[in-house]
Amino acid sequence: MIDWDTVEKLCALHCTGEEIAGVLKIDYDTLQRAVKREFEMTFAEYFKKHAAKGKMSLRRKQFEIAKVEMFQC
Q1: Angstrom distance (rounded) from CA 12 to CA 52
Q2: Structural domains of the chain, count
Q3: Which residues neighbour 51 within 8 Å (Cβ) at sequence distance 6 or greater?
Q4: Which residue did the predictor score with more confidence, 7 or 67?
Q5: Using CA atoms, how far apart are residues 71 and 56, in angstroms rounded to an integer?
Q6: What whole-number percentage of the chain has pLDDT above 70?
């Protein structure tokens, strides 16, 4: 049984498919097949969808840090 919440979070952190499979203690091919079966898309498509959340969080944090540094000058 694959914990899809964990997979989504690891995608958001931009972990590779191999790294995600390692955390789940499964083979990368197994992960790819499971994504295809459960979500009817390739792992690359699944990753792109969930990695976007991580990019958004990263940009938000960078913007917050930039605002703080701007007002410290």
Answers
A1: 7
A2: 1
A3: 11, 12, 14
A4: 7
A5: 23
A6: 99
